[in-house]
Amino acid sequence: MALCIAVAFVPMPAAPGAGIASDNVTYVDTIPLEIGTVTGARRVGNTLFVGGARGFSIYDVSDPKSPALLNTTLSGPRFPNEDIDTNGKLLLLSNQDTPVATGLEVWDVRDAKNPTLLGRVADLKDHTFSCVFDCKWAYGSRGAIIDLRDPSSPVVAGNWGASPPSDGFDVTEVAPGMVLTSTRVMRLLDARKDPADPKTIAIGSTRDNRLIHSNRWPRGGKDRFFLVQGETPLQHVCDRSAGAFMTWDASNYRRTRSFQLIDEFRMTNGTYTDGNPAANGLGCTAMWFQHHPSFRNGGLVVSGFFEHGTRFLRVDRRGMIGEVGYFMPAGGSTIATYWISKRIVYAFDVQRGLDILEYTGTL
What we know:
The protein is mainly beta. The protein is 2% helix and 46% strand. It has helices at 218-221, 253-256; strands at residues 12-15, 19-21, 25-31, 38-44, 47-52, 55-60, 68-74, 85-86, 90-95, 103-108, 116-121, 129-132, 137-140, 144-147, 155-159, 170-175, 178-182, 185-190, 199-205, 212-216, 225-230, 245-249, 260-265, 289-291, 299-304, 310-315, 321-329, 334-339, 344-349, 353-359. A hairpin with a 7-residue loop joins strand 10 (103-108) and strand 11. The radius of gyration is 19 Å and the shape is globular. The two termini are 23 Å apart.
């Protein structure tokens, strides 16, 4: 059971036509995006790279409440193009299941106003790709290992599994050369000796063998627990089988070579007046989330839950989870959320574009 935090939320109109928010969340603005269905973003310094079904956009976010568009590159269609990764020089895009599936594309984004395509690897079915060792390597969510030391000629160099897992949605480099996979059986891979042949040093799985969608391990893998969410797409009613946001115990994995589930948080359907929609179209699973910059063995997390919108969660020092705020968009469906500053959150919505929110509660 998730931790119950005794905080009274007062649903309030966030702004005319914007949605409903708890009293500690302020709606700032909505910015339409030109890249089709938006799927995720990655920030490097004051530059934000945003992926969508038609391509990607680059923004200057030095003023978080007023992002400035630098470039939009329409290179689609592409799917899913989620959780795009970059070091600010190279940008990795996935294209898994469109009529012309290009697999992995590598873009030069050093000139944010004029990105150029460097290379591609076709016939790959990985859902996403992530940078490893500062984008000298790319790991696919379903096993592909790509050598990017010459980014104009990317080469398939190996596979991090005995066979590509069909359920892999993402991988995260939690520390240099240490990669955590989002698979039914999560693996912590050690690629420090040989990036083309990483070793599995710990695993974790759920009793119900649920789909795992994404993960983050705060402070470069130093926290006692890491954060995970599981996906249940197109589930219209939220119940105990809906996709959960989870905390996992990693305090003793070096000895046990395993991770253990601590707590999980799921959305419920409601009456709108209680801050929860009565039903869902795309589902009520969490998708892409991010912990607050101050997270240290506990703290704030922000996550997108489709029609349930943006949810602010607090993880205590035991790893127990409770909700502390929300923004539920009108006519929207939130797929990804990111802390842009200590108070400002960008909520990417597949219907609306970019909702800019300000969290005024306790950090």
